[in-house]
Structures are given as C-alpha cells and as structure tokens.
Amino acid sequence: MTSLESPDVLKLRSDFPILSRTVRGGRPLVYLDSGATSQRPRQVLDAERSFLEQHNSAVHRGAHQLAEEATDAYESARARIAAFVGADPGEVVFVKNATEGINLIAYAMSNSSIRTGLGPESERFALGPGDEVVITELEHHANLVPWQELCRRTGATLRWYSVTDEGRLDLDSVELTERTKVVAFAHQSNVMGTVLPVQELVRRARAVGALVVLDACQSVPHMPVHLTSLDVDFAVFSGHKMLGPSGVGVLYGRAELLEAMPPFLSGGSMIELVRLEGSTYAPPPQRFEAGVPMTSQAVGLGAAVDYLNGIGMDAVHAHELELARVALDGLAEVPGVRIIGPTDLSDRGGAVAFVVDGVHAHDVGQVLDDRGIAVRVGHHCAWPLHRRFGVAATVRASFHVYNTVDEVAQLADGVRAAREFFGVA
Amino acid sequence: MQLEQMYQEIILDHYRSPHRAGLREPFDAESFQINPTCGDEVTLRVKLDDAGEKVVDVSYETLGCSISQASTSVLTDLVVGQSVEESMRVLAAFQEMAQGRGTVEPDEDVLGDGVAFAGVAKYPARVKCALLGWMAFKDAVVRVGDVPEKGTVR
C-alpha cells in the first residue's frame, strides 16, 4: 500500500487556500473537522468557476452549444464519480446531499406502500404493519429520522442493532426475519470511526430478502469503496465531505432497483410523456432528478474525484489511519480522557471522539479553538449513540488527506491545556 | 489570550461552585429546556410568593458546559428575591447583551455578575449556552401564569 510522506502532504496542502489562513488572533488554522465538511482544493474551485465562466447552461434541455457543453460536463462528472465508486453511470443519481438521498429512497418506498408506485414492479418497495426496518444505534440522524418517518407513515416497525462498549456493532442484538424489508447502516461511524462489517450485514439481509441501504458519507471520502463489490442495493454520500462542493451528493442504486422504483420529487426533467390527465416517467437516473439540477456543483464533485484519484484512495486511507494512530496515542497519554469508540486501528477510519473528565466537550472545544484547532463538539447528529455511552456531548477530531502528523499532535496538547484551564489537571 | 475574555473568573467561580443548584420543593412550575445542537439540558423550577408577584426560589439541574451552568447560577442570584416584573427586565437585559455580538455595553447595576458574560456574546455558537437557563426561567414563569386560579374550571 502506498502511503503519503510528509513532504507529499505539505505539497498538496498548498492546493487548499483556506489551510494557509489564520484564526483567533493570528494562529495557524488546524482544521480537524473534515468529518463535518472537508476543505476544497483549488482544482475543484477552478473547475466550478471555469464551468460557470465558459459553459453555464441548463442541462438536458436546449439545442444550443452551451446546453450541449453543460450537459456533457454534467454527464462526464456523473461517469467519473460512478467509476470512482465502482458503479455504472446510470446507477448514480445526483441529489442535494446524502440526507436527501436517504429521503428519496424512503419516500419512494412510501409511495410504493400506498400503491402510488409505477405498478406491480414497485411492490418490492412496499411496507406495511408488521414489516421491519432495521438500522443501528450508531447512525447519523440522516440515516435514522427518515426511517422513523417511513415507519410512521406505513405502520412498519423500526429496530436497531446495538453497539458494544468498544464501539463495535453487536451482530447478535437483532435477528433479521422474513418481515425485515430494509437494513440501513453506516459504512463508517461519523463519531467513532468504526467501520461496520458490510459483507456480513449484506449476507444476513440477503438471507431474508431485505434491501440494503449503505450510508457511505464517511467511507467514500476516506477509503477505496467499490459499491458493486460490496453488493449493497443503495448507497448515499455527500460531495462536501470528499473535497467537493456542498449542494451535491449521490444516491447509488442497483440499476434493476432504480428501474422499478417510483420517483420522489416530480416535475420537469423527470418525465417521459406529460398530458393533463397524467404522466409517465423517464428512466433512471433522470427519473430522480426533477427540475434543473445543481450543475457547477456536480462538475466540482467530478473534479474532486479526479483530485482524489490523483492521490489514490489507498494512500488517503493509509494516511488518515496514521493520523488516527497519532491522535489515539496522544490522547492516551492525557489523564481523564476517555475515547468513545475503538482504540485499535482494525476496521477503523480516522474519526476520534472523546470526553474529558470534569470538562464539558464545549469547553474543551473552546480551548482548542483558542489555539486555532477546529474540532466538532456536541452529539454530531448521533444523539442515540451518545445516550448509549451515557454522555451528552463528545469532542470529535476528524481528518482528511491534507492534515499533518504535527497538527494532530497538537490535539493532545490542547486537551491538556483545557484540563489545566478548568482546574482538573 | 482571548480565552480569558470568555471565561472570566466570575464565570469559572460560578461553574465550580454553582449557587442554588439542585431541584427543590415546593415549586409552582418547572421547565425543561434543551439545546438541540449540543444536547445540553436544564431542568429549572420556579417558586413565586402567594400573590405570584415575587420570585421566592429558583432551583435547577443542568447537564451542560461551564457557560450554561454558570449562567444559570448567576440567574438565580439576580432574580431570587426580585419581583417577577423586575426579573423579566433583568432577563431582557441579559438576553440583549448575550445576543449583541459584543456591541451591547452591559449595565452592571442591572446585571451584576451577569456582565461577565459580555465576552460570550462575541462567540455566536455559545450564546445559546448562556441563554439556556434564562429561557427555562422565562418559560417556567409563564407556566406559573398558565395555572388556573383556585376554584376556576378549565
């Protein structure tokens, strides 16, 4: 496996203009919050700007030259993004973000459940009382609340796998049954960095005929992901977490499923034939892209994928694991720090969450901020997981390829300073 | 260092030794408030005098950062023993300062130890922390008013 040496990281850091700014009275920015949103390299910013300056037009309509160029740019981005995650272009639907992607699936299932799907082929997405949707205790609210709502609308029951004290999934906590229609889970926990056993979960879901929905928000940006090999039915991820723009994300669906799935949002672009009495719908992916879509953002995400390919996702992952090791080792030396999540690096990515005895996460974050270190504090949109560990809030450091070992080493020093400041050292 | 601007010694003192902490009986109304962005919680009880005009006691439990805990502690110092009307004036002044992005000059005669939170106003993400207990107090006082008079039928 190739890994990034520190000179490589320093060199690529110069692609990210924001990383050279200072904060809070002249301190160099140490950005350890890429799990929330990542920073964008000049290549992505340039691609967006150049598209807007040269080719901007509404895609998939109009016969003029700009319309052609814009459509080519949009579809080329789709093809490169699809290749990046091991999918066919027709299996990639552009959405606003992963949250919208999960809602799209949930509402398509809703529509199927009240028999307003496409026809008999949409029956496989129908849910009703007695059916089950299974998630996990570590999910981001985006992969929890839409399923709660779907269950409310259909009368189905929500169940979840619990999480062990080590921050791993307890695979014995739920037994899937013939009534399990959906198994939805994160590829990697946005809080603890835990990588879930996708292969085993897919095997179990397949055994009962359930659909598998993978929240790949924290995996696709940080490690090689091949969705076809993972054999999931659906997957979602957001552009802004993978060095790309906000306002664009991806819903992946196996071609055969998208083909049978009714739309969520309806309107222009997603139709085949419209009469006042009723309409028919375009094939996927257009069926799921109603209205003029985000275009410069999709082009920017294409550029982000090119950029990540240039580094190599193996190298990105190896680098982030090294950063996680430095963070875990450093924090282990600080008294009163408890890591929430796995402390070994197997099946793990680069998010590190922790609490400090006697100092609230907000206060730790404030001391870190005073030193120029940006981390996330709170429940990170995974409130049930925090309840499970008996904490209201954690501090989370998360990384991307542009972070250095030196930056991450400052984390433990900052936590020490917080303990001193609040008099618990 | 900017940190001391936010965490003034008064705030740290209240955080380490909060005044009137804990939930007490009797009380007229209770309010539970939560900060959905961070999950911090406060449960706060208010006891007014028989006429419903004077704040007799404020008791509370908080699960939160130093700012929210200290702010709730200061609140009790400022409102207990005051008329309800005066407590609402203090609340309005505290809220104005906290939401003023550092542009509101606080009046120490009105806000007492509360002026220490002027620095927090420069950190928009922490304003909600400073106001959590105050919002609970306001809500609880309103709830006291909601209780039907003795002998009236709902």
TrEMBL record, chain A:
The cofactors required by this protein are: pyridoxal 5'-phosphate
Where the record annotates domain Aminotransferase class V, the positions are 30-411
PROSITE patterns in the record: AA_TRANSFER_CLASS_5
Q: Which domain of life is it from?
A: Bacteria
Q: What is its EC number?
A: 2.8.1.7
For this entry, the protein name equals Cysteine desulfurase
Report the sequence similarity comment from the record.
Answer: Belongs to the class-V pyridoxal-phosphate-dependent aminotransferase family. Csd subfamily.
Look up and give the organism this protein is from. Pseudonocardia bannensis
Q: Which CDD domains would you find in this protein's record?
A: SufS_like (cd06453)
Catalysed reaction equations from the record? (sulfur carrier)-H + L-cysteine = (sulfur carrier)-SH + L-alanine
Q: Which InterPro entries match?
A: Aminotrans_V_dom, Aminotrans_V_PyrdxlP_BS, Cys_dSase_SufS, PyrdxlP-dep_Trfase, PyrdxlP-dep_Trfase_major, PyrdxlP-dep_Trfase_small
One annotated GO molecular function: cysteine desulfurase activity
Identify which top EC class this enzyme belongs to. transferase
| Pfam families documented for this protein | Aminotran_5
TrEMBL record, chain B:
Record-level GO BP terms: iron-sulfur cluster assembly
Quote the protein name from its UniProt record: SUF system NifU family Fe-S cluster assembly protein
Query: PANTHER family given for it?
Result: IRON-SULFUR CLUSTER ASSEMBLY ENZYME NIFU HOMOLOG
The organism that produces this protein has a lineage beginning with: Bacteria, Bacillati, Actinomycetota, Actinomycetes, Pseudonocardiales
Any one Gene Ontology molecular-function term assigned to this protein's record: iron ion binding
Task: List, alphabetically, the Pfam families matched.
Answer: NifU_N
| Database matches in InterPro entries | NIF_FeS_clus_asmbl_NifU_N
- Residue span(s) of domain NIF system FeS cluster assembly NifU N-terminal: 6-129
